[in-house]
Amino acid sequence: MTTALYTSILSTLICMLSLNVIKVRRKHEIAYGDGGNEELQIARSAQGNALDYIPIALILLFVLEYNQANLLLVHLLGMALVIGRIIHSWSILHNNFKGRVKGMQITFLTILFLAILNLIYLPYGQLF
Description:
CATH superfamily: Membrane associated eicosanoid/glutathione metabolism-like domain
Shape: elongated
CATH architecture: Up-down Bundle
Strand content: under 5%
Number of strands: 0
Distance between the termini: 27 Å
CATH topology: Four Helix Bundle (Hemerythrin (Met), subunit A)
Radius of gyration: 17 Å
């Protein structure tokens, strides 16, 4: 199953972002919230944004694969999602606004493309 590959890669990214939040919390001794600390706010923003977009994108990728879309197409969209999320996460952590925009553009376009393709590949005969 192709989606398992991209789920594993993106889960690793989420774990890395989560570990970064833990590191910053320990560094500044902040147990809850962000304590008004900008470094922790940035770390939590990178983690939270990944958690906002990755699950729905992976669901759409899985459904596309399940509906027997061309495997090359599934791989291309999976790679685009990984690239977009890595660019966005790195850019948040390094205060690179242009990179954040580029990462979100790639992510949004991938999600939109997945949604449209799922409507195309939907087995309408099995709906009723």
